[in-house]
Structure formats: structure tokens, C-alpha cells
Amino acid sequence: MTTSGVRVRIAPSPTGEPHVGTAYIALFNYLFAKKHGGEFILRIEDTDATRSTPEFETKVLDALKWCGLEWKEGPDIGGPYGPYRQSDRKPMYQPYAEELLDKGHAFRCFCTPARLEQMREAQRAAGKPPKYDGLCLSLTAEEVTSRMAAGETTVIRMKIPTEGSCDFTDGVYGDVSIPWDSVDMQVLIKADGMPTYHMANVIDDHLMKITHVARGEEWLASVPKHILLYRYFGWDQPVFMHLSLMRNADKSKLSKRKNPTSISYYSALGYIPEALMNFLGLFFIQIAEGEELLTMDELSEKFDPENLSKAGAIFDIQKLDWLNGRWIREKLSEEEFQARVLSWAMENDRLKAGLRLSQTRISKLGELPDLAGFLLKSDLGLQPSDFAKIKSPPEEILEILNTVQPDLEKILEWNVETIEAELRAIADRMGKKLKVVVSPLFVAVSGSSRSLPLFDSMAILGRSVVRQRLKLAAQAVAALVGSK
User: Fold this and answer.
1) Is 256 annotated as a binding residue?
2) Please, where are the H alpha helices in 327-462?
3) Residue among 256, 302, 377, 432 flagged as catalytic
4) Residue-wise burial string across 338-354, b where 16 or more C-beta atoms lie within 10 A, e elsewhere
5) 185-189, 228-232, 311-315, 386-390: least confident range
6) DSSP at 253
7) Do the beta carbons of residue 469 and residue 442 sit within 8 Å?
8) Digit-coded pLDDT (tens) for 356-404
9) Known active-site residue 302
10) How far apart are CA 370 and CA 388, in angstroms?
11) Where would I find the Aminoacyl-tRNA synthetase class I anticodon-binding domain in this sequence (predicted)?
């Protein structure tokens, strides 16, 4: 049992590359638990069965471990309140849904996706925020039974008060009031029997005895739904704390479309985890100039959850670079530095795989840096002139790069076979020969038209690094197009 009774959790969804925003929220919870002598829990929220994959779950766990975060309970180590993966907890949720139906706090909805989309379009056209219009609220018990017996698809929605507001105190924002008429009649159980985030989140937090829920401010508007569920079940609600979103320097939301956001990207480029955690931890503490270089223990000592800023946390890459450089120079011994370099080069078999591919393509070992050095570079320094030797005109190269970038995001499992299959499919969709599509990709990924095999190189570099290199390549080619 904890010394304080405090239990907090991080609950990422395994639907993509682990985001630095996940590390940011996880670090806050970790520091909060340490500050209060509590326990930090990891739970995997994979209710989105179409996008969640075992590969992404492994990446989430590996990324958070790389960050230096340790959890007391989780899907990899178990614990007294498991399972810690929501898909494994599926049988637990239906009885609670039935309880809400029996108490009259929820209702069955038979509206088809087509009908719901028509409803939303009409609401948007009328200048109203789209939300469920309550059509199935008026169905009688007999009608519900009959339609279910006929095999109609049904979901379970929660009922929302029609008057007044939901008033609560947030640990960061203070007193908050949200009118009930702005809250949607949320789906709680989907047609496949899986709970939505809102339903599973509340039930799991209750069963796992979570005392404080700290998450991003984007969830603030969902609090009324969660509070209502706690009230419907007659449970004590946790303390809610909503942290300011991480933002770019221009105050826009941190997004992979603008800047690299994957933890794996920063790991691949040679940032060290202590520096990244140091950088993120500075958002939660007050320090004087000159005190920026802090270990996890020092962050924990200075951590003050009662004095958090509502201002956006600016992800300043230059400051991260500065901190990372200081950590390398000031915190690592010569032996530690050498060990870190070797460990980084071997990460995800990057160096080993690169050497294997290089062996049949060189006549002297001294040729290795030019041939395979791109696998270890943080920046290729691409210029518009790098694409000048490609036979395709700049406009076609830019079209290829802008098409390939989003299409590669569709790949669930990132490996040589899936990358090749997707690029061949892209070539077919664009009506181009494969060699026309891959020619600019060689330059974009390796910085050279003579390199290691493209599909293998992309697999070794990883999705997040390839994404950024394609984006920078597109910027370089766009300059070439603009200069014509």
C-alpha cells in the first residue's frame, strides 16, 4: 500500500508512434507519485480495435522505459488490479452498462452511421455544434426489445441532464463550470461490445483505485461526462488535473505535421533520455536561471503540483539541444559517453543491419561512412540542388513526396515488406513506374542517389525519422519549384 494512498496512472493508446506529449503527461504523474509517496500505474487503453496494434503497444512500453520511467503495475509486470490492457478487460464493462440501463441513466441507440452523419451535417449547416439529437431516447422498452430481436445494431449512450451545469474544481484550472446542454450523449458501449474511452476510463480508474487523474487539457471538456458516470454509479470521483498542451514556438499545437513528435525520433537522433526528461520536467517547476540542469531526483524535489502554469508548454527544440549538449558534456564520464554512443548506434539493430547491407557494396572499409553514414546522421542537410540530377521534373518530385508522406502513415507494421508493398501500391495509384517514385526517395532518405537498398534503409531508420526526412525533402524541392 502507498504511504499516502495516492495512485496515479498514465493510460496511452497504442495507435501510433509514442508521442513526446505522452512522456510529458507520464512524467508529471511519475513526479506526482514520487512527491506524495504514491504509486505510478501504466494502463494500455486499446478500445480502438481498428488502430491499436501489439507493435505500437511494445513501442509505447519501450519508449517510456527509455525515458527512465518505472511503474508499479502494468501490462508487462501485472499487479493486484489487472489486467492492465483494456481489451483484456472487455467482459468487465457490460455489467456496468446494464446497471446504467436498469437505473435509467443510459439508453440503447439504433441510429445508423448514415443517419448520424446526416444529423451532424444539418447541425453544422445550422451553425450548431454537432451532437446526438436524442431520437432513440423516446423508444419504449417493447420497441427496444423488438428491434434487438430483429438483429438491429445497437450502441449504449448515456443520458445527460437538460438543465444547469456541471461545476467542479480542477487541480490546475480551479473552479470550472460547463453547461449540460453543451455535453453530448456519449456512446458508452460500441456495437462490437467494446467500451468507449469515457466508459472504460471511469470504470478502470475506479477499480484500480486511482486517486488523481492528470492528463492533457484537451480532456477538460470531457470531465462532465466522467463526473456524471461517477455519480450514476455512486462512486467517489478522483481529483482532476488538466495540464496545458505542449505547443510549438508559434503557439500552435504540437503536431507531427509540423515538427517531430515521436519519442523514437529523439532517441534515434541521439538525444539522451535524461536530457529529454530534464527538458519536460522544467514545465512543472519554478527555478532560477542557471539551475536548469536537473536529474530526475532533483526534479522530484523541486516539483510543486500546487504551483502549475496554465500557459502553454513551449516545445523549444533549441533549448532541448542546449540541455542535451550540457548533459553529454557535463554529466557523462568519458566511459559513460563511449558506452552511450555504442548503445545508441546499436539501437534497433541500426548499425548491425547497416553493416550487413553494406558488406557486399564496398571494396574498402573507408567507403562505409559515405555509403551508410546516413543511418547515424541527425540531419542530412538536404538542398534543392540534391534533387537536380533526378530525371523527373521538380513538380513531379514534389507530387511524389507529398503523396508518399501521408500514405506511409497507413502502414500498421513498419518493416521491409510492408514498406515495399505500400510504395508499389502508391506507384500504381499514381500511374507511375516504381523507379520513378523511389528515385527521389533515395535522396530524401539517404541524401544520395547511391545508397543502401531503399526499403531496408527506411525500415532501419524507423517511421518517425523517415517522416521527418520526407518532410524536409519536400521543403527543399518546393524551393526548387518556386525558383522556376
Assistant:
1) yes
2) 334-346, 350-358, 368-372, 394-408, 416-430, 434-446, 454-461
3) 256
4) eeeeeebeeeeebbebb
5) 311-315
6) B
7) no
8) 999 999 999 999 999 999 999 999 999 999 998 899 999 999 999 999 9
9) no
10) 20
11) 337-473
